[in-house]
Amino acid sequence: MSKFGVLVMGPAGAGKSTFCTALIQHLQNNKRPCYYVNLDPAAEEFAFEPDIDIKDLISLEDVMEEMSLGPNGGLIYCFEFLLENLDFLTDPLEEVTDEYLIIFDMPGQIELYTHVPILPNLVKHLMRGSLNINMCAAYLLESTFIIDRPKFFAGTLSAMSAMLMLEMPHVNILSKMDLVKGRVAKRDLKRFLNPDADLVDEDPSWRPGKDQEELEEGRTDGDPASTKNVMAGTSFYRLNKAVAQLIDDFSMVSFLKLDAQDEDSVGAVLSYIDDAIQYHEAQEPKEPRDDIDTNIIESAMGD
Ligand SMILES: Nc1nc2c(ncn2[C@@H]2O[C@H](COP(=O)(O)OP(=O)(O)OP(=O)(O)O)[C@@H](O)[C@H]2O)c(=O)[nH]1
Ligand SMILES: [Mg+2]
């Protein structure tokens, strides 16, 4: 028997926990069972109480205090500790059946998704070990990033890096769509869903050349440490063009749109996740149960 899960990832504040909440609400509205796993050792408040909470194993606050670590080092320590104590996850998850969608709410520290091999090891354990969970990664990026193209391509690069590192089915999501509605034309928005390198050239805010000249001549508005000119200069343009071209060449990253307040939008994203993990293929057609039908009929008749 397979199990089914989604790993909700992305940078800090991208809307991961809000998406998890919206997803749980949507599943409940559609009478689908779900199992909520919080893997953020710093998360305090939840709209739905997690079924498993990493804080019952280890909390970031304790680690930072006792090990004298900062928030990022502390988080890596928490995950290393989790990897040494995988029974904490395995034991309860073994009981979860194939009707459930297991939702893993991840922390936002970008270190986890880029260069340390912690997540690949965790994912391997969940997918290939005795748990045998069909997993999909959902990588969220805030849609407001599209207003600042260097930020958008940096975020897209981090999504691609997570895809390459995790080697699992993956959907990328532009979250908080309500914040860009009306600010970006629909046609322009479409370009960001399948980003190409030309978006860098078409950015109206670029002034390549001019500020670089000023920088080279030492004219930096009286502030020698100013980064303003660097960010608008030719070198920065070329860097962004190279990043965008790399993403374009791999042709791996496209985005789905998400407005967590809109149930249809949450349902649409869920249907992509279901497809990726082949959730519906595994569900047995349910026979109508005689006892339930009789009860419904009896209660409808006021018996
Ligand atoms: N307008 C709008 N705000 C949102 C949406 N989703 C999340 N937010 C807000 O964005 C902020 C961060 O949301 P979270 O869901 O906590 O983000 P997160 O990715 O879980 O954050 P970390 O766990 O701290 O990395 C909160 O203030 C949310 O209310 C959305 O769809 N629209
Ligand atoms: Mg969160």
TrEMBL record:
Is this entry keyworded Transmembrane? no
Biased composition regions of type Basic and acidic residues, renumbered to the chain: 204-222, 282-292
Q: Which Gene3D superfamilies match?
A: P-loop containing nucleotide triphosphate hydrolases
Which GO terms of the molecular function aspect are on file? GTP binding; GTPase activity
Sorted alphabetically, which InterPro entries does this protein's record hold?
Gpn, Gpn3, P-loop_NTPase
Q: Do the record's keywords include GTP-binding?
A: yes
Q: Tell me which UniProt keywords the record has, alphabetically.
A: GTP-binding, Hydrolase, Nucleotide-binding
Show the segment(s) annotated as Disordered: 200-227, 282-303
User: Out of the domains of life, which is the source?
Assistant: Eukaryota
Function as written in the Swiss-Prot or TrEMBL entry: Small GTPase required for proper nuclear import of RNA polymerase II and III (RNAPII and RNAPIII). May act at an RNAP assembly step prior to nuclear import.
Family per record: Belongs to the GPN-loop GTPase family.
Subunit architecture = Binds to RNA polymerase II (RNAPII).
Q: What is this protein called?
A: GPN-loop GTPase 3
- Recorded source organism is Westerdykella ornata
Biological classification of the source: Eukaryota, Fungi, Dikarya, Ascomycota, Pezizomycotina
